[in-house]
Amino acid sequence: MKQFYGRKVIITGAGNGLGRLLALAFAARGADVIVTDLNYVSAEKVAAEILDIGRQAWAYALDIADLEAISSFKQQIHRDIGKIDALVNNAAIVFGGAFEMMPLDKHLLTQQVNNIGLMAITHTFFTDLLESPDSHIVNIASASGYIGLPYGSSYAASKWAVIGLSESIRLELAERGFEQVGVTTVCSGYLTSGMFEGIKPPALLANLSPEKVVDKIMEAIERNQPFVKEPLTVKSVDLLRAALSQKWWDKAAKALGISTSMNQWKGNTR
């Protein structure tokens, strides 16, 4: 996306944390932001912050797990605002615990929000993005989409799915000649605030400042980069996986604390 000014962007899960910072970053570059969150009051507060800096903003309550709500949301956006130019899929949930100890409904809800809901809202607004002269999709995945996450298995599975969807859509758009539509997939380690606040990060994978990640995301959008991988350790995963046998990769993951970082953490709630 070469031009932000006047572009209309939807950001899911924008009521706090990384989503809020992304909403403010888009607004600072001149975009008009549609702030969505499960909690309407939180979305309204972020929209007010954007209005204060002189850009247009709208707040909507949206449950990304509700497919009918997503369909109705599109109709409302087209009626109230018009077509969009960018979509940032940030909304997500995570629960922690041993696989069999976590209730099945929590595993399924994680997939519904992080994977199915993301796919649904992308599909719902896809025509808008194809018709825009300069558009972008940002999908917030995770480093766990590359390396797995013991005690957070369904979360990691959902993020593996996000990476696969993003890359497939990106390649399909290029094949179909829609070069004006960029796709960026964000794979970061644990952030210092938000869903993973309070977690003990693995060695060499220290908690990241969300502000730093936002800067990298905005830069990637401007340059149409397919991935944001932070910190450096995440950037090295592909090389390490290729260089090490499975046995030695598993040993490295255990030694670095990747295999145990979630075992005392219970996750967030909706």
Automatic annotation (TrEMBL):
Question: Which keywords, in A-to-Z order, does the entry hold?
Answer: Oxidoreductase
Q: Which Gene Ontology terms cover its molecular function? A: oxidoreductase activity, acting on the CH-OH group of donors, NAD or NADP as acceptor
Q: Does the keyword Oxidoreductase apply?
A: yes
**In the UniProt record, does the keyword Oxidoreductase occur?**
yes
Give the family from UniProt. Answer: Belongs to the short-chain dehydrogenases/reductases (SDR) family.
Q: What is this protein called?
A: Short-subunit dehydrogenase
Organism of origin is Agitococcus lubricus
